[in-house]
Amino acid sequence: MESLQLTIAQIQEIRSEIARQIRRGLPRERERVKALPAFLPPPPACLQGRAWALDLGGTTLRAAVVRLGEDGEAEIEAGSRELRISSLTPGEDLFAWQATALEGLTKDELPLGYCFSYPARGLPDGDAVLLAWTKEIDFPEVVGKKVGALLKKAARGRKERISKVVVLNDTVAALLGGSWRWGKNREWSGFIGMVVGTGFNLSAFFPVSALGIKTAGWKHPDETMAVNLEAGNLHPPHLSPWDEKLDATREDAGRQRLEKAVSGKYLPELAMFILEGRTAPPFPALAEIDRWATESNSDKGILARILLERAGDLVAATLAGLGDVLATEGMIGVIAEGSVINKSTTYRRRVLKTLNGLTGAEPRPARLFSLLSLPDANLVGAAVAAML
């Protein structure tokens, strides 16, 4: 069990290494941190209006019309309609199916924000090219194509009136939505978008100049823009022999090492590998692991607590490392999305406790962190993106 428990000194080393990997990845290709530019600036405080919002994440699609008010409050004006990819018939067009979710929500012509939570490279025109499918979804004919253009074409074919489509992923949606909601308050010196659910990822605003040639074609080189870090692929030091042995059995060995230590998909697999030595399903849901941690003093209860606390330590070290790269003083708001961070009290408390310990240990704490929750963050962030 000792190899799964991190000391403060080790957490500080992880923090420093995470910051180093982020700094390397910002301007360079083929690094641990992909740092994909979203070509979306921080939203202005005065932003308001209405937009279509479409959220395709995992196996679920949601559609809505969102109104952003001048008071900083967002309203789901119509929707949110929910469809499941399992309802697709064989051979049915993915984008025509998505367009059906927009039917009847409004007759007005509006911009559309498309929260597309799969690896995609953003383009200066607001579209994005699909790099690969994940989460057991596979429509091979779409890889390498502009997903926004395909959606707009399908919607027009169904007579829906869309003025433009802007594509972003879920962490950028959380970042934009939170920045719009709380950015008017000068209490905040910066924001981070974070998703801890099935997977793990972070996004933040960076100066365009820090991204090197990745932003070629962008017309505003003096601005800052949202960046999807693809942070699950970070590789922290001080992972345990258990992590190494289990990862060696996987087809994607060596990849997504941080995600495999902190996310809802992989923590149950690690728990069963340690308890029973197996690498094949069935695995318990993370909610079951969380229940063990809070209700049981058996071996599995003790292991569950240790795994959740270590995951919280790793997330805290990663946030602190990203904060070091952002180099802002004051309060950083972390818009925390995902079932793991928002439903596991053990996990959430550990992240906050360790973050407070890291900042409190500094001679002059330059920054503090607060975890924020934004209802319907993906839809709100997509609407913000559509209006920028």
Which descriptors would you attach to this protein?
12 helices, 13 strands, 388 residues, five-stranded mixed β-sheet, Nucleotidyltransferase, domain 5, six-stranded mixed β-sheet, single chain, alpha/beta
Describe this structure in words.
- The protein has a domain at about 50-170 and about 380-385: Nucleotidyltransferase, domain 5 (2-Layer Sandwich).
- It is about 35% helix and about 20% strand.
- It has twelve helices and 13 strands.
- Strands 1-11-10-9-12-13 form a six-stranded mixed sheet, sandwiched between helices. The chain has a five-stranded mixed sheet with strand order 4-3-2-5-8.
- Strand 2 (about 50-55) and strand 3 form a beta hairpin.
- Helix 2 (about 95-100) crosses helix 3.
- About 45% of the residues are buried.
